[in-house]
Amino acid sequence: MMREQALDAVAPVPLLVPDMPTPAALWPWLERMHAARHYSNFGPLVRELETAFCRQFDVPGEQLATVSNATLGLELALQALALPKGAHVLVPSFTFVATATAVVRAGLVPVLADVDAHSWLLTPQIARDACSRCRVDAVMPVATLGMPHDMAAWQHFEEETGLPVIVDAAAAYGRQWLRGASGTLVFSLHTTKSLPAGEGGFVVSTRPGLAERVRQLSNFGINLDPDGDLPLGALAGVGTNAKMSEYHAAVALAAMESWDAHALQRRALYARLFAALNAAAPGLLRWQCGGPDGATQVPTLLCMRLPDADRRQTLERACAAAGIGTRRWYQPVMNDMAILRQAGAVALEAPVSQALSQDLLGLPFFWGMSDTQCARVVRVVADSLAR
User: Fold this and answer.
1) Out of 65, 258, 352, 372, which could bridge 214 as a Cys pair, Cβ 3.0 to 4.6 Å?
2) Which domains does the chain carry?
3) What pTM does this model have?
4) Is 96 within 8 Å of 186 (Cβ atoms)?
């Protein structure tokens, strides 16, 4: 133990460490896969994983579909809406690039909107304001940094406007729920996410037929329904190969076995770091605030806003010198991406997103982060901001 503490005191502190299942935990699932000789094409492990997700979200099987990754899940969910080519999809400017690129690759036009100053989310009110100023045919809000949306509020928005909403909940597994509301959610099972499968994702949707359409499109668009209007094997739509493999389902099922315990530990770790950093820099740090569902914490990232760009840069340099990883999440913001403008994106004014890009910084946070590593991060933050 003393040797491990000594190493923690000098070794680099990484920004993220994936919480992947151990080989021993994974082995029984791989043995089941090999015994079945079924490795892809909606195999028994994929079906078992989908059943587990359906229980968690309290939806029937036809309202959930796994995919090979969340980005393709977003693209196929948009395609399943059958919007006309060139339709305008409202997305936040402060998000990961995949949100906007999924819109472009689906043959649609991103409309880049601002986010709320407290939650850092594209809210129904921001969407209403955007609709009053420009064309909007659908909305794709993001569970930014894992912060969940109030799905009842988005259901009301859909009913009020008639516009479909797809929530990019890539980073929000374990936090984003329907809670009795209708809606569409797309989750990621990437290796850095709360439930890691290496790669993978799934779509949950109460919109009639959407998840079933996503499943069909993920298998090239082939009709596999013997009672359908088309012959078996005929194309019902132009899809792609976005099926989850049995290998990735095995990893996800193994990760599920330890998920509850690890989630509790991540919550406790986040609470300790949050308190320690605020004590180390009293009144100087600003944090993402949740809405009605924001209290359900299963964090995978630790992000904060510094007082200004200069002090962020000073802290970045101090962390680099101390071997501590940092990242400026979601920067540059989508409004500043020239390639999106070339693709025809409509950029609305986004002062909050621009402000976030000037002073937000991510610090190390991962399951298994030691007390020594935490203390090093807090000390560097305290020393940097004191100067």
Assistant:
1) 65
2) 2-19+259-386 (3.90.1150.10), 23-252 (3.40.640.10)
3) 0.96
4) no
